[in-house]
Amino acid sequence: MSSVSHSLQLAPEVGHYCGLFGIFGHPDAAELTYLGIYAQQHRGQESAGICSVRDGHVRRHASLGLVTQVFDKKTMKDLRGEFAIGHVRYSTTGSCNDANCQPLLVQYGGGQVAVAHNGNLINAAQLRRERESQGAIFQTTSDTEVILHLLASPQFADTPDPLGAVLHALRGAYCLLFIFPDRIEAARDPLGLRPLCIGRLENGAMVVASETCALDIVDAEYLRDVAPGEIVTLSEDGLSSRMFTEPGTVRRAHCIFEQVYFADPSSDVFGQNAHAFRVALGRQLAREAPAGADLVIPVPNCARCAAIGYSEESGLPRERGFTTSHYSGRSFIMPTQYERDLAVKMKLNVIREVVRGQRLVVVEDSVVRGTTTRGKMGALRKAGAREIHLRVASPPIRHPCFFGIDFPDQRELVATNRSIEAIRDYLEVDSLAYLSLDGMLDCAAHAPGDYCTACFSGKYPMTLTEPVNKYGFEHSTTATRH
Fold first, then answer.
1. pTM of full prediction above 0.85
2. Residue 292 and residue 270: Cα distance in Å, rounded?
3. Residue pLDDT, tens place only, 254-290
4. In angstroms, what CA-CA distances link 164 with 156, 245, 388, 416?
5. What are the residue ranges of CATH 3.40.50.2020 in the chain?
6. How much of the chain exceeds pLDDT 70, in percent?
7. Burial 443-481 (b: 16+ CB within 10 A, else e)
8. 420 by DSSP, 3-state: which?
9. Which residues are CB-contacts of 309 (< 8 A; sequence separation ≥ 6)?
10. What's the chain's Rg over C-alpha atoms?
11. Residue in 332, 190, 301 with CA at minimum distance from that of residue 248
């Protein structure tokens, strides 16, 4: 009899955003950029793209699909150059379609420029309306295109530092890579909401990436993070830097959800290893919410680190309660509900012999909508689990995110207007406990005030002037949602 049964048919919990990679000063820049975005495929599975420079000309290839699907030997040969930028995308503004694939490449008064963006601009609608009223024509429904229109506008192009002036006008979360015929420019928003790091190869080539796992894959040495409010230039003159906002005038607000959930466990994010942080969360969770049980099992994949910490702190043995297919991809960043449901159905199975008759502590990293978690708990119950004590290694998510995480509708959040007991009843578990906000922040490397905890606390690092809608730029007659 097979030890694996009870395939899960579940909805996704949360979507992701994007991954960036850039390299200057290497004859195999395009190939290394391919590796860099491949290492960050977990940050976006909708599309992939690379722009490179050869003989003073920017070349581009981008399409829907995974990195391995988008590029072949011919396209990589066409992209050969000495510097390049790359992007993997999950759409947080605009649909999943060919027009929105990044990097976006345009020709304007200053020549060629391409941009790749990780984050979400909360004033993009206002900026777009202003440009359209002046006759600008937009080719995409992505907030990123607004940045290119600002760069081409005389209002900014005629200033001493056009890029700095443009960035100063943006509000929201953004890490950006620009490629010009002679240089790469990397920038990070003044709050430092999203991660962006700098590395160096043995031959002196400089690298910029969203996560340090991308530096590892190309054997680059980590140097430092791009500072909040900083523009870093990579060119024949080496690395130079300038600030587009006054240092210290805006507080830091690193997205704590990067460390809780999104970043690869091998990455160092905001100066702290993601795996070590999550193990610490698990330890703290065991101290705050012990449970009388026989086994600790994680919900794959991100909760494995927290389950290690919970097991070590509680003294309960850790087991593997689910199998995970390595071929189905990450369901939560797939573009449609149908694809997500199908991917999770193919991805997770319960190991019946492990869970039958056992009192389980099930460790989750987070619970957002609750639909996926409820399905997993039901599958464990059907497989014969005697008791299920769900422990969540982060606080209840009660508030929407407008800075790049795709759960902007508060009505979708299971913790909105529900008590812990009501959530427990909905998830159909014997007990439920979340890590406290203070407990989570105690595990972080920086002071509590250096993090954005808005999805947990409701305290946003900036004020929203109008509603943010992922599909707000799309007209009903032309919107395409894949």
1. yes
2. 35
3. 999 999 999 999 999 999 999 999 999 999 999 999 9
4. 9, 8, 53, 39
5. 4-11+267-457
6. 86
7. bbbeeeebbbbbbbeeebbbeeeeebebeebbeeeeeee
8. helix
9. 278, 279, 280, 281, 282, 283, 284, 285, 286
10. 22
11. 190
Q: What is the pLDDT of residues 180-229, one digit of tens each?
A: 999 999 999 999 999 999 999 999 999 999 999 999 999 999 999 999 99
Contacts of 331 (CB under 8 A, 6+ apart): 10, 12, 339, 340, 341, 343, 344, 347
Q: Which of 291, 344, 294, 338 is nearest to 322 (CA)?
A: 344
Burial (0-12, 13-18, 19+ Cβ within 10 Å), 257 = buried
Q: One-letter amino acid identity for 267?
A: S
C-alpha separations of 419 from 224, 240, 372, 410 in Å: 42, 51, 19, 15
Catalytic residue set? 18
d(CA 343, CA 410): 25
> Percentage helix, strand, coil, to 5, in the chain?
30, 25, 45
Amino acid type, 277: F
Count of C-beta atoms within a 10 Å radius of residue 395 = 22
What CATH topology corresponds to 19-250?
Answer: Glutamine Phosphoribosylpyrophosphate, subunit 1, domain 1 (3.60.20)
Cα–Cα dist 17/261, whole Å:
12
Quick one: fold of 4-11+267-457? Answer: Rossmann fold (3.40.50)
